[in-house]
Amino acid sequence: MLIEAVVVRVFTTxxxxxxxxxxxxxxxxxxxxxxxxLEITDQDGRTGYCQVQPDHLREPVLSEHIRPVLIGRDPWQxxxxxxxxxxxxxxxxxxxxxxxxxxxxxxxWDLLGRRAGLPVWKLLGGARDRVPAYASTMCGDETPGGLxxxxxxxxxxxRLVKRGYRGIKLHTWMPPVPFAPDVRLDIxxxxxxxxxxxxxxxxxxxxxxxxxxxxxxxxGRALERLDFSWYEEPMDEASLSSYRWLAQQLAVPVIGPExxxxxxxxxAEWIRAGACDxxxxxxxxxxxxGATLKAVHxxxxxxxxxxxxxxxxxxxxxxxxxxxxxxxxxxxxxxxVDFDQAPPHRNTxxxxxxxxxxxxxxxxxxxxxxxxxxxxxxxxxxxx
Length: 384
Ligand code: MG
Known about the structure:
alpha/beta; Enolase-like, domain 1; TIM Barrel; nine-stranded mixed β-sheet; four-stranded antiparallel β-sheet; 13 helices; globular; binds magnesium ion
């Protein structure tokens, strides 16, 4: 059966979060937002789905680059399709992003899993049927009782531990919050959280992203004293030399790269340079499930952990296919947001947390997302 149609369906749904000027997500009153599904349909009428950011997969990208590669192709030739799209990136001058490749790859895997009658994580290796989740907080804010000070973070961390989490990752304050960035405030916050949860909970930090080397080193040395499990993206990841400089001086594991372009190839360079102690990859940054698994296997060959960036069904498929990553990133979480409430376009969430702090792999064929197809059909506002 060959691929017959590739469509992006834009629809309205509701959200309880909104992004600030720098793209960081915070709580917000319930409001309507646009969302989209990439739908890849074969001649049998079976469809694979991936939720996409509508602004990240515009019609010209679909018509000029994606459809010419996919239409009429056997969907089981997933790697051949991925390689063809990857090679088109050079001539697309930035228009065909790693993220777009990732969306296509996830929708194809969903289609293949549905055709096979199997969850994707089983098709890919079936390494485990549940994974420990760490709670990943939103960035800091100015909301009292939210994430506005070290005491807020400590109180929220206590709640998360009571909920079952055995690991917590803090995102601290970043611009445009007016008092950010502030290394000393980050250190006080990490210390308050360690004090609140005790020595047995794994803690990680993702801070600022644009510190200078000396600031990043000061913060890293504090994390060593506080027994943190990893230190994530304190500087611009385009500077491999800066991360090599940092990792060589710190005992706390430096993790990366998260958002640097270049898929599994750039991750090989980070390992070779000694710029990270733990590799980082996720389906939306690395070009999809297949390319993220290449990064995971690359790390495995060097006895390095590869921790997965971001939540969702595609990342869960990677986690179920390998026992290398230790954690699933559950979030982003905030004291004022109910993360367990499914949005109207989903019947259920994909990553329910069990009392032991783990998330079970989905059992439905494909990626396992439980779409509310009726809501999506009724609220469709555009297709391309
Ligand atoms: Mg991060």
